[in-house]
Amino acid sequence: MSNTDTRDPTSLRTPIVAVLGHVDHGKTSLLDKIRGSAVIEGEAGAITQHIGATAVPLDIISSIAGDLVDPDDFDLPGLLFIDTPGHHSFTTLRSRGGALADIAILVVDVNDGFQPQTLEALDILKRSQTPFIVAANKIDTVPGWNANEDSPINDTYESQSDRVRSRLDESLYEIIGNLSDEEFSADLYWRVQNFQRNVGVVPVSAMTGEGVPDLLTVMMGLSQRYMKEEMEIDVAGPGVGTVLEVKEEKGFGKTIDIVLYDGTIKADDTIVVGGQNDPIVTEVRALLQPRPLAEIRTESRFEKVDEVSAASGIKIAAPELGDAMAGAPVRVVRDRPLEDVIQEVRAELADIAVDTAEEGVVVKADTLGSLEAMADALDEAEVPIVRAEVGDVAPRDISVASTAEDPKQQAILGFNVDVLSDAKQRAEIEDVTLFTDEVIYQLIEEYEDHIEAIEREQQD
Ligand code: GDP
User: Fold this and answer.
1) Probe ligand 1: pick from 19, 22, 23, 24, max atoms within 8 Å of CB?
2) ipTM value > 0.95
3) Which residues form the Tr-type G domain (predicted)?
4) 438: which residues sit within 8 A by CB, 6+ positions away?
5) To test the ligand 1 pocket, which listed residue (25, 27, 29, 30) has its Cβ within 8 A of the most ligand atoms?
6) Does the annotation place 85 within a ligand binding site?
7) What distance, in Å, lies between the first and last C-alpha atoms of the chain?
8) CA of 297 to the centre of ligand 1 (A)
9) pLDDT digits (tens, 9 = 90+) for 61-116
């Protein structure tokens, strides 16, 4: 049987959405609200729970958005929301043809404005050229905000929006030059204040749900208008995805959670995954999806499936995944020589590789994307790096750091990672200083303070 006969024609996949923003600005609440609204509108089962992502189909978006979204005007199937808010995996991969996220929501607390992680997220969006919408969140807390005002001329609404707008950095305006208001109705334009400046600011409350229909409408509209071509995939083609997380799973060993953005992956495929040292070649043992909640008590948490097509979040169990890295590419080997696929993954990894020096600090980060962001920031601060890796701080990192001749370089900077307990002990013994933080610029500031302290000591 020739497999070309069974090929699906090109079809449109679901755009993948990431939610970014400063801690406590409401990323998780907003995702919960979107999921909750979808369940209310469509009853349970309307949304498909993926590994690490939630799919909200077009008809549910349309019910939530009321007359703002007419399903007949759209041919994209819906939106796939990545559930790990602020996840760093997608940060650098998009510009290289891959896409963990096609579009993003930048959540900003209207009371708190732009904070360090907002700026960091903006930086990431700028570098990856990911289009995004600003969700100006917690409008329910703004005194005088009139949620029930029907009139299109609502001063409160406008002035609040100005307040949000005034917090937008100039750089924000440059980023998505391809957005405009033309496609939207006057009513929507009134609600979405900022389109004339190429950035959509949608006032929302993740608590009351106000503005969520508008947000979904705008996301859907922008995707349909500007991303349709990018969403055209050969569904039956070999799957391509990005690793979200590497996890130990009872009964399955090391597994990877991936977001598949192209093609199909099958339960007996050979795959190539980006690893710490070299691409990992392995055979899929099982493709796993979460079971419906009711079954968790009696059954295992996962259900095996034979195949999935993009866009999907799926867990892969396979041997040899110990060295797999979050943020790394995953490619299915099908209809092509294995060596070609390995070369492709190797090239993608080399592209993300951080330049290291003979001497410098050790850097650890949770994903490839955040590692690259760290390296950029350290480069700007003129701090050389001797070793840069994805993963928790381990004893062998201490060994490397302890060999530095300059005491200022006997340091490890860990972004969004843990320090393994034996590494902690070892660091004390070997006199290596550990810095960990969840905000890059704070991490670098802590390290710079440390350097200054050492320099002062040396002068005395
Ligand atoms: P994250 O860290 O960005 O994921 O933020 P969370 O979703 O955990 O929200 C942080 C806090 O803000 C929680 O106490 C939420 O209940 C609260 N919060 C989030 N969105 C809203 C909102 O729209 N209105 C109000 N009043 N509180 C909110």
Assistant:
1) 24
2) yes
3) 12-227
4) 23, 117, 415, 416
5) 29
6) yes
7) 81
8) 30
9) 888 887 778 888 888 999 999 887 655 555 544 444 445 788 889 898 877 777 77
